[in-house]
Automatic annotation (TrEMBL):
This is Uncharacterized protein. One of its GO terms (biological process) is protein N-linked glycosylation. GO terms for molecular function: alpha-(1->6)-fucosyltransferase activity. The keyword Transmembrane applies. Residues 49-66 have a biased composition (Low complexity). Residues 49-78 are annotated as: Disordered. Keywords: Membrane, Transmembrane, Transmembrane helix.
Length: 587
């Protein structure tokens, strides 16, 4: 038996009717483990009573009110006998109903039930990804996730979100039906197993979900080092991974840093849980993983069928993590599991920091030409200062659409003077400033140009320029170009998504398809922005100190690149955005 949990829409199957009154006939179609009206209508909180099919008519009870309205004399003894007989008869009726309920065969549902969820036959699974309730080999109601074998991978973000929402609802209801209240409390633990969940692989083995023919690696999976070394030749003899975590790089967040942090955390978590790790870049706004990095480590096994990769629950054999599901994977339960409750403040974050560091060490391998440039650039900037007995202080200045946490600057930016003063406080030695910023005007600010010695850019391989700089470099005005557009004020989401695309106003940006059918020229511009960001971080990470604002993801990434001992214990990573401390993924 399968119960579809999809919410009703034009192409969906669920039906909502909070005023539904479930009859015994409809109820008889449910399995013995799913026997409450609250399952069919979770909005009707008062319908918690156990329902059962109607039994035979009970024998007539002695009339307690005489006919014709005449009052008959009664005694205490007769009343006692009547109460005993009534009690015996009620007990017999209750016993009959229980036996009838337990041993009467239940017909398989074949049609709709006018409720929150639609029940369909085993041969009529929904043609859309959804959470469903099935009857396992033991006759127990369990929930699982049905993803049609022919569905595109990855699913759309809203589909992943909806599956997780459905999963929570079905899990809650099934546990309520089984009267597993204490277990529900324990389910708050990150690694507590949901006893009502049936893994997709087990559901397939029991014939409850269709088998999926393994078709190798999905098209959008990033090639690992073994595949790259084999020059894309097929790798034979590998078994399907027993457990895996796939990070889908698709996100509605225009920032590169959020993808990095989530991917590193996902990798660290996969290694901790002994899962194979895969990356999918099918619809990443920045293009292909290989444009920026060398291939990731090989898992040594093959990915499972895409219909086995689900966003929820975390205990599933093969899970998917993306920007759409990051709250489910790295939410409150994750924080409670991995924070050290015995420590105070930032020290509580040690294990979370460790997961990110594991991901950084494995995945932050820049493409060869950019990596060579970073090595040479760092040597050129840092070596002379170190030989002269000074220290190199890296500065990451984030402007654009990211504002500080500190209250008085929440609608502005941290003054550059604070960066300078903090750099001077780091050492009595001579300090050299190395600056990276999303705002090109920062490099020309008096605070940095009059510093002794003047501050240097972290990298100059890819430079984001202001309109004034572009016009100056262009020289004579081109009559065929109406206006030169520069990178003004820093990184803004709408500016990023409009790069290379024909937009006239802000409303046009909202209508853009940010991940699909992107013009080649627009993708090239996005790639330049991404590579500049990565090289900035890579050069700053080799400084002796770094000063930045913790409200910026780039700043938190720099702490991970410095490492726990340097950044947190020795204090070589310094935040100038109020008294806030480093924290992993901030929602």
């Amino acid at each position: 038996m399968i119960i579809n949990a999809t919410k009703k829409a034009k192409s969906m199957h669920a039906r909502r009717n909070p005023n539904l009154s479930v009859t015994a006939t409809a109820y008889a179609q449910l399995s013995p483990s799913v026997t409450s009206a609250s399952f069919l209508s979770p909005t009707a909180a008062s319908r918690r009573s156990l329902l059962s099919p109607s039994g035979p008519l009970s024998p007539s009870l002695p009339s307690l009110i005489p006919r014709h309205g005449k009052k008959q004399p009664s005694s205490g003894k007769s009343r006692s006998i009547q109460r005993v007989l009534a009690g015996i008869i009620c007990s017999l009726i209750a016993l009959y109903l229980i036996i009838h309920h337990l041993f009467t065969p239940r017909p398989q549902p074949t049609g709709d039930v006018d409720s929150d969820y639609e029940m369909v036959g085993a041969g009529a699974l929904p043609d859309v990804p959804t959470a469903v309730v099935v009857q396992d080999a033991r006759g127990n109601a369990r929930w699982t996730v049905s993803i049609p074998p022919k569905a595109d991978f990855p699913l759309r973000p809203d589909q992943y979100q909806e599956i997780c929402h459905q999963s929570m609802e079905l899990s809650k209801q099934l546990q309520q039906e089984a009267r597993m209240g204490p277990i529900m409390k324990r389910m708050l633990s990150y690694y507590a197993k949901d006893q009502s969940y049936l893994d997709v692989q087990e559901a397939v083995e029991q014939g409850l979900l269709p088998a999926s023919q393994h078709e190798g690696r999905p098209h959008g999976f990033v090639d690992d080092v073994d595949i790259a070394a084999a020059k894309n030749a097929p790798i034979n003899g590998l078994a399907v991974c027993d457990r895996s975590l796939t990070y889908v790089m698709e996100t509605q967040d225009a920032g590169f840093g959020s993808t990095l942090l989530r991917m590193w955390m996902s990798y660290g978590l996969a290694m901790k849980e002994k899962r194979a790790f895969f990356v999918d870049d099918t619809r990443w706004p920045y293009g292909r993983f290989s444009t920026y990095f060398t291939p990731p480590p090989s898992p040594g096994c093959l990915p499972p069928p895409t219909s086995h990769m689900v966003p929820c629950p975390h205990s599933a054999r093969h899970i998917v993590v993306s920007g759409a599901t990051v709250r489910q994977t790295f939410g409150h339960a994750f924080t409670e599991e991995f924070e050290d409750a015995r420590k105070m403040r930032v020290q509580r974050q040690h294990r979370i920091f460790g997961l990110l560091r594991t991901g950084y060490e494995a995945l932050f391998k820049l493409r060869s030409d950019d990596a060579s440039y970073v090595t040479n650039r760092a040597e050129t900037l840092y070596a002379p200062v170190a030989q002269d007995g000074g220290i190199n202080v890296g500065m990451h200045v984030r402007h654009g659409d990211k504002h500080p946490y500190e209250y008085q600057y929440q609608k502005d930016y941290i003054p550059l003077d604070r960066y300078i003063d903090t750099a001077r406080e780091q050492s009595k030695k001579k300090a050299a400033l190395i600056v990276a910023s999303d705002d090109p005007s920062v490099y020309e600010s008096p605070e940095f140009t009059t510093f002794n010695p003047p501050a240097n850019r972290a990298q100059d391989r890819i430079v984001l320029a202001t309109k004034r700089a572009l016009e100056a470099a262009q020289g004579k005005k081109n009559p065929w170009i109406d206006e030169v557009t520069g990178w003004e004020g820093g990184f803004y989401r709408d500016i990023f998504f409009s790069l290379g695309q024909p937009v006239g106003n802000a409303n046009d940006v909202d209508s853009l398809d940010n991940n699909e059918k992107l013009p080649e020229s627009a993708l090239r511009l996005r790639e330049l922005v991404g590579r500049a960001y990565l090289m900035d971080l890579a050069v700053l990470a080799q400084a002796d100190r770094v000063v930045c604002t913790v409200s910026s993801i780039g700043c938190r990434i720099l702490a991970v690149m410095f490492g726990w001992d340097r950044a947190i214990i020795k204090g070589e990573w310094v935040n100038v955005d109020g008294q806030f401390e480093w924290k992993g993924i901030v929602w």
